[in-house]
Amino acid sequence: MPPLSEDLAAVASATTGFLPEDEARALYDAAVSAPAGTWLEVGTYCGKSTVHLGGAARAAGAQLVTLDHHRGSEENQPGWEWHDPSLVDPYTGRLETLPSLRHTLWDAGLDDVVTAVVGSTQQVARWWTSPLTFLFLDGNHTEEVAQHDYAAFARYVMPGALLAVHDVFEDPADGGRPPYNVVLRALGSGAFVQEQQCGSLRVLRRTAGPWQD
Ligand code: MG
Fold first, then answer.
1. In angstroms, what is the span from residue 43 Cα to ligand 1's centroid?
2. Is the pTM above the cut of 0.90?
3. Cα-based distances in Å from 169 to 19, 72, 95, 174, 182
């Protein structure tokens, strides 16, 4: 499969977000090797990783769904470490990243490959039933929500398909533990085996056999 085009790489690196270049490349390489079908990204923000995944989806013949309520996680709120005042919507006074995502997808020309779903993972989990051939977990990093997102969506990852988890830090000194705990849960269940690690990105493959959690 080809690497991400220079045009899309330029759009991705100009997009606000939290994804180092080496991890972005590893994410693209994993995704582009995934089967065609439906892919799901949990945690869109302004669409930086969405460009990498969308480019991979186009190359692989897949459709990418990217899910976010677009009002930011705790760490993006005013007074917190990762707050960006330019992303506050003056109408609501709240963080609002949906317009940024729309502009990113427009610049990337990925509107026909990427479907943005706007809502919380708890809302969408109530009706989601589609089998997945790639799942990227990069949403809210509290223990409660990280575990929820895994429980809600990992069960739809088909045998042989891929699960990627971002911001996985084994050492608590490097970052929050919930994504690491999710990886431990996935490996401990026997439903996934680890295939690759790049920085804080882990890529796991769904084993054969029935779902177990
Ligand atoms: Mg992340």
1. 8
2. yes
3. 14, 21, 26, 6, 11
Distance (Å) from CA 11 to ligand 1 centroid: 18
Span 150-206, pLDDT tens digits: 999 999 999 999 999 999 999 999 988 999 999 999 999 999 999 999 999 999 999
Query: Which element (helix H / strand E) includes 198?
Result: strand 192-198
Rounded to the nearest 5°, which phi and psi values hold at 166?
-105, 160
Q: Which of 52, 69, 70, 141 is catalytic?
A: 141
- For residue 70, indicate whether it is catalytic: no
For domain 6-206, the question of CATH label 3.40.50.150 is answered with yes
- Taking only the tens place, the pLDDT of each residue in 76-86 is 888 888 888 89
Average pLDDT score, the chain: 96
**What's the CA-to-centroid distance between 30 and ligand 1, angstroms?**
16
Cα 166 to ligand 1 centroid, rounded to whole Å = 5
Q: Delimit the domains of the chain by residue range.
A: 6-206
